[in-house]
Amino acid sequence: MIFSNRKISARQMQAAVALIIFSSSLIGLPQTAVYNIYSVLIGALITAAECALICFSVNKLACFDKSNRIVKILAGLSLIITAGANIRLVCSAVSLYLLPKTPVWIVAAVFAAGALYMASTGAQGAGRAGEIIFVIAAVNAVIAAAVCLYDTGGGMLTAAFEQSGDNVLLNGFRCSFMFGGAQSLFILLPETEGENRSKKAICAVMMALAAVVAFTYTAVSKFGLGDTADRVFPALNIMDTVNLEAFLGDRQDVLMLRMWFFAVFAAVGFEILLFGKGLVKDGGSALLICAGASVAFALSLIFDGASSAVAGIYLTGGASLAVFAVASVLSLIAWKWRKKG
Predict the structure, then answer these.
(1) What are the residues whose beta carbons fall under 8 Å from the beta carbon of 330, sequence distance 6 or more?
(2) Residues 6 or more apart from 6 whose CB is under 8 A from it?
(3) What residues pair up with 192 in beta bridges, in sequence order?
(4) What are the Cα distances from residue 141, in Å, to 219, 249, 256?
(5) What is the rounded distance in angstroms from the CA atom of residue 2 to the CA atom of residue 9?
(6) pLDDT of residue 222
(7) If we measure between CA atoms, which residue out of 11, 110, 79 comes closest to residue 272?
(8) Is the pLDDT score of 178 beyond 50?
(9) Of 123, 124, 198, 222, which residue has the fewest beta carbons closer than 10 angstroms?
(10) d(Cα 264, Cα 89) in Å, to the nearest integer?
């Protein structure tokens, strides 16, 4: 859908926020979820509450121009850090599964250039691309989930419910750090056309959270708590235990790899675009978008491996939860105080 005011449709916004949340947390959350599935569920609920709080405070925050600008700038900066970490994760996966002898910087440069092209098409171009990629990723995710469930032979996956002996609630907060991307709504929602934008955004977030929890549950159940923590890409490895070589051949991990590659490509493209839009009041310029891609590329080389990139997403997610949840609460309080005055 094309709008004369250069805004995106609600469906395109949903695709963007779902891909941003899904792409980062799919890789890092199973490693963080070595406590048990209860902590993961608590983390998902915390993230859903954060997104709801952001959605309902966006319009209120717009009444305070200076505060609104600061929040959007911080959101853009946090998203570009996540983009750099995601690119590094892609490089690690490519090195491990596909091109072990290819230098990391070459893979990072190619990926960043592709994401830059997506971002350079503008909000509507990126939005339409995101819609298509979301469908591709969703179809692959459904097929992968169905194959994994079929391979269990109807048995229940119970290892994810093992108790770690730690504080479940505290670990739930830790898991919520991996569900990064909620801050993108501060930039996305004002760029979205249509009614019920907040409700549609929350629905997209819930869908992404449910998908990540399902794959995390599957990974931890299949490998156990200890083995999951030791794996670099536990969620991508869930196809390794599938016994369907007659249909999938000896590369049974292709389904998960393809799904995640598509998702993370779109997510990085959106993150570069939102970086530019967050830093400039009237929309991201071509120069800022190029700068965002360059920063993401540089950050991907600073991270020295997949574990470092996951740690970067974890720390950024924790800081974002603290900063943007507080910003949302303060904006609602300030808006009510101003309305009474």
Answers:
(1) none
(2) 122, 123, 124, 283
(3) 8
(4) 14, 18, 7
(5) 8
(6) 76
(7) 79
(8) yes
(9) 124
(10) 9
Short-list 192, 244, 195, 235, CA closest to 93: 235
Distance CA 137, CA 172 (A): 27
The owner of tokens 């954060």 is 50
Helix (H, G, I), strand (E, B) or coil at 269: helix
pLDDT digits (tens, 9 = 90+) for 247-298: 555 556 677 888 899 999 999 999 999 999 988 866 567 888 999 999 999 9
- b/e burial code for range 264-285 (CB count within 10 A of at least 16 → b): bbbbbbbbbbbbbbbbbeeebe
pLDDT-above-70 percentage for the chain: 84
Among 309, 338, 329, residue whose Cα is nearest residue 27: 309
User: pTM for the complete prediction?
Assistant: 0.90
Contact 65, 282 (CB under 8 A): no
How big is the chain by its Cα radius of gyration, in Å? 19
Structure tokens at 283: 């929309």
